[in-house]
Design goal:
mainly alpha; 4 helices; elongated
């Protein structure tokens, strides 16, 4: 049962952006980000963050912000990681909704973050449980 909880929480957190209707209806006069490249980069960051969280679960954590009282990555760290990732993506959305000029640059930044998180996640699997 304890091993299933992180997967359920991850699935719920990743499905929230998919069900948010307010993202599809911008405010009057606001620009709606419409670049498929940018949207794909958001998906890549979310997937890489989930992969990193899964690879860290119940292992020793080097980041003091994410480690629990016993020095391991647990649900507290998962919640902090999800809040940071969703906050960064939310801020990016708010900055891009008025003008699409930065979508391409934001997409490249997102793909870079996704690559970095994926490298960290791959390294995490070599850490002892």
């Amino acid at each position: 049962m304890k091993r299933i909880i992180p997967f359920v929480v991850t699935a719920v957190l990743l499905s929230v952006p998919l069900s948010a209707e307010s993202l599809d209806m911008p405010a009057p006069g606001a620009h709606k980000p419409r670049s498929g490249f940018w949207r794909a980069s958001i998906g890549a960051v979310l997937a890489a963050s989930a992969f990193d969280a899964h690879s860290s679960m119940h292992r020793f954590e080097a980041n003091p912000l994410l480690r629990g009282t016993n020095g391991r990555f647990q649900m507290r760290g998962f919640a902090v990681k999800a809040a940071i990732t969703s906050g960064a993506m939310g801020i990016q959305y708010l900055l891009l909704r008025k003008s699409s000029r930065g979508e391409r640059a934001a997409a490249f930044v997102n793909f870079g973050m996704a690559g970095g998180l994926s490298v960290v996640a791959a390294k995490n699997y070599s850490n002892p449980k």
